[in-house]
User: Fold this.
Amino acid sequence: MKIALGVSGGIAAYKAAEIVRQFEERGVSVQVVMTGAAQEFVRPLTFAALSAEKVICDLFGSGAAEPNLESAVEHIRVAQSIDALVVAPATADILAKFALGLADDFLTTLFLATTAPVVVAPAMNVNMWNHPATQANVEILRKRGVRLVEPESGYLACGMSGPGRLAESEAIVAAALQAMGASQALGGETILISAGPTREKIDPVRYLTNRSSGRMGYALAEAALRQGARVLLVTGPTAVSPPAAAEITRVESADEMREAMIKLLPQATMVIKSAAVSDYRPRRAAAQKMKRAGAISLDLEPTPDILSAIAKHKAGRIVVGFAAETENALENARKKLSAKGLDAIVVNDVSQKGIGFDSDRNAVTIITDDEVIEVPESTKWEVAQRVLDYMAKLRKRRAVKVSHGPCA
Assistant:
């Protein structure tokens, strides 16, 4: 998910740096677009460092010595690549240009070119905000579907008091996420997620593992971040990059994953164990590389049951497990749900082609003691959204039960 953050010229421009940081924390990448006036208050380098993206400062070439074809159509490329345009602070000047459809710089041209949701957060002097022209422009934009994050009242930089202060960063980010369809249903939650495979050493060059890519666990982590949660991600070795905004612990073996999960558990309010942990490991790993010498046999022992250990220390946490099955998927998942004392289990049939391992797509069934919810084939991102939506419902139901008391 990506936004363009328009920064226009006002004293509140420095607050946009915090807005960038908060989007990054939620796994949303940010392309900053600055007006010429904004650059008088904050240097572009500040936003480049925070966003790790080029900051666009002008319509033709973004500072390049010679405009070229790429710079001439860059506003169209950006317009088509973003999921939302957020303007914070939005000055009286930029609101007027948006309302009139003027396009004399990159930001105003981008506004006309994008079909993505637009969120504006005005900031200006109280008299400028209350002026009939500004209010008329705001009303025009509202009628056209632009979402407005109202300015707050208080002491202003000009020495006056009243409405005109830029809204809090949290409110601006929440409005943008809502506009993009990402709810904040998990705000305040800390979710501990395990992802990827584990490796169990046979000798210094060989190990037992499985086909897990980590994509499902990483999709869950990214979706949780976008719904406002803090994410503690414990990941086995993968070739996929995890969401940068998650707090990442890298492990290799089942023992290391168990140790990391138990250590982090006290911080968590929810747990999703989506990692594909190796069920067995060699009882003794060879100290040197085993030479080829005909048939051999490995003496295997079970790895620790991480999910059971976590479930025994639930203490009010929502705990959800994953089960990859190749036969009798629902029956086997129900047994696992009951045996491990989980709140829910997500099962998928990995024998089906095109889903599960080595794929960006999945199809799962969410099972609880009294519900069976089918999630048809879709992207792992969409599956993650469905799983997290259900976890939010479980939390809400539990809160209602507690508030009503045991005799309700």
Remarks:
- The chain has a mean pLDDT of 89.
- Residues 380-404 form the longest helix (25 residues).
- The radius of gyration is 26 Å.
